[in-house]
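Incident review: delayed structure delivery

Summary: a single-chain prediction request sat in the queue longer than the usual turnaround. Root cause was a stuck worker, restarted by the on-call engineer. No data loss occurred. The affected request and its eventual output are reproduced below so the record is complete for anyone auditing the incident later.

Affected input:
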Amino acid sequence: KPTHDFHELLQDVDQDWEKPAASGGRVIRLFRNPAVAVAAGMALLLGVFGIYYFSRPQSMPALYAAYHEEYPMVLNQRSEVQSVEDSVLTLAVSAYQRKDFKTADLHFVHLMTLNVENEAYPFYHGLCQLEQGYHKDAILPFQSIQDQEPNSYQELARWYFALACLKSLQAERARKNLTDIKPGQYKYEDA
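Output delivered after worker restart:
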């Protein structure tokens, strides 16, 4: 019985819709012709697609700019009694946090000579190179990290290596590296 009442209500609404309005006019349907409705729908779809398509970065430098973000400093000092390495690290971290990437880079290069085993130093060296606009030079430190035994900076280096390749107009190297990023790894969704 409730379904029957609902159908009657719909018929009443439809009849009221077709009746002239109280002001003496008629209710105007937006689309009497189905072809106009289809055309309007297509125009709407094309508009949405156009907005999506033209709002995306199209060039490799634009892709780089869209996805590049400065990586935060996560290195810290270990003790109050500082070795030469700790002193240089303090200077490097301080310069990086001040966004003085040229000075930070010099310190990270020095740190790389003091401790060749620490993969954080070439990683931040590569980041400093990127921030200074030396995109081709940034490729080598990130590549060296990826070539080492598994370490905690490989996923990060893979992403920034791809960005450096994009900015250096080496699309195929960037594409290959981005496809190597596995689900759950750093920036997988953006790759």
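Verification: The chain has a mean pLDDT of 75.
Action items: add queue-age alerting; document worker restart procedure.
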